[in-house]
Amino acid sequence: MVNKESGMNFSESLALKLVSLLLALILWVTILGFKKEEVRTEVKFEPLVAPGMMITNKIPSYIVYTLKGPRSLLKDAERGIQPIRPDLRRVRDTTVPISISEDLIGEMPTGVNVVSYHPSNLIIQLEEIVEKYVPVKPTLQGLPAEGFDISRVKVTPTQVVVSGPRSSLDGLDFVGTEPIDTTNLRQSMESVVAVEVDPSQGFRLSREKIVRVTVETVPSKKR
Description:
Blueprint: H1 2-33, E1 36-44, E2 53-55, E3 62-70, H2 71-79, E4 95-99, E5 113-118, E6 121-135, E7 140-141, E8 148-156, E9 159-165, H3 166-169, E10 176-177, E11 180-181, E12 189-196, E13 204-205, E14 210-219
Parallel strand pairs: 7-11
Antiparallel strand pairs: 1-3, 2-6, 3-5, 4-6, 6-9, 8-14, 9-13, 10-12, 12-14
């Protein structure tokens, strides 16, 4: 009888300890969930511009916000943030100041606050996109074989249409091609190559994107 009572007391004691441990764990998780923390979150910055216009200066792809609040709410707050898309489609000015604020990321859950954001101000430069016919200058690499010279380089078409911001396009005198290897060339050769423009300056090929290049050689007159 004594052994049975001892066994029950031991089982009851173990059960109580497990329940106490579980309650303590639940309490710890609850307290941890409501402990205030700070997190940095990157919010996409994607201005909307009118067709035929483009942004010509470098702007950040993200705005960094610092949020403070209970850990359990911060994750929900981050998931609810949408990209920042200022609408510049009806703006007529070419220089547009943008003020960043906490309102741009929408309403935060109760208990979550915006501590800071960076950058706080931006300048956006807008410019009209235009088109221009630009001569193509093939890019040749390597010297022909000894005793031969390159006599003629023919490209078809001779010009391509390039689009880009007016101020940059006005100074574009020619565009190149992907490299054409003329190392040890002894006879005429023909290649179909891609035209290359600098996209970092906003340049794009509007129509033709490849050209046919003929490289002709003649015996060298050097002795």
